[in-house]
Amino acid sequence: MAEARHDHEFKEISRRKLWLVLGINLAFLVIEAIGGFLAHSLALLADAGHMLTDVAALGLALFVSYLAARPPTQRRTFGFLRAEVLGAMVNAASLFLIAGLIVREAAARISQPQPVTGPLVLFVAAAGLLANLGSAMVLRKRRRENVNIHAAFIHMVADALGSVAAIVSGAVVWATGWYPIDPIMSVAICGLIVYGSWGLFKQTTNILLETVPEEIDFLEVKNAIEAMQAVAKVHDLHIWTISSGIHVLTGHLVLCKECCEPEHWEQCRQAVEDMLRSKFAISHTTLQLEFIECDRECSLY
User: 150 near 156, Cβ under 8 Å?
Assistant: First the structure.
């Protein structure tokens, strides 16, 4: 009961942080879009476009966080926990799309540079950078505990780097009047966006494909189980992730000859589960027991 209460409190804190970051980004989205339009800056509009995906990503993160909190049903026995993973994958995919659109526009502007108002780009991008850094700091502590929060955090960091590129663009135009720097910096922003999104896209894809979590060594888990005194062998071992931090393990345990009395079978299984929980943080386990025939008394317990 205490664990469920803690999880509920965590989700409430996470949602409040997401609402706060959403408000900050929505306000600066409007500021950057207007500034980019007035300054004729593709770099600033690219950063605003990225911030638009931030707003959409944060809205999606909030939606799926509420969806994931819904209880399991007879048809969805894990509930909607995977909604957070799907939301994070959509967020990553949206970044690839917006990067492609910006690069296409940048290619046209590099060949035909357009006048840009450098000072306006510089000041608006600097304000955007402060907003991005503030948003990233709000989400920083929670990013490793939830893939959806992690997705939003990556958006904020990538957008902060995009604001730096827009600042460089504004400063160069202001100082030298060299307009091609603006589309060049917009392409640099796209590179940062794609780089920051690839890891998230890979992570969510691996979860949906039910691969072994990156932080868990499959052979180490297998060897740890077989090293226990009661276990002769483990086979059909599977480890995967349902959602952030929720790892699942199933396997068949072949108990050694000394563990042959029925009253000890539950103790053997419980010992393995306790080891998996304490050493590998795997608490959702399903273990099928198999036995080697024996004709002597149990000596393990």
Answer: no
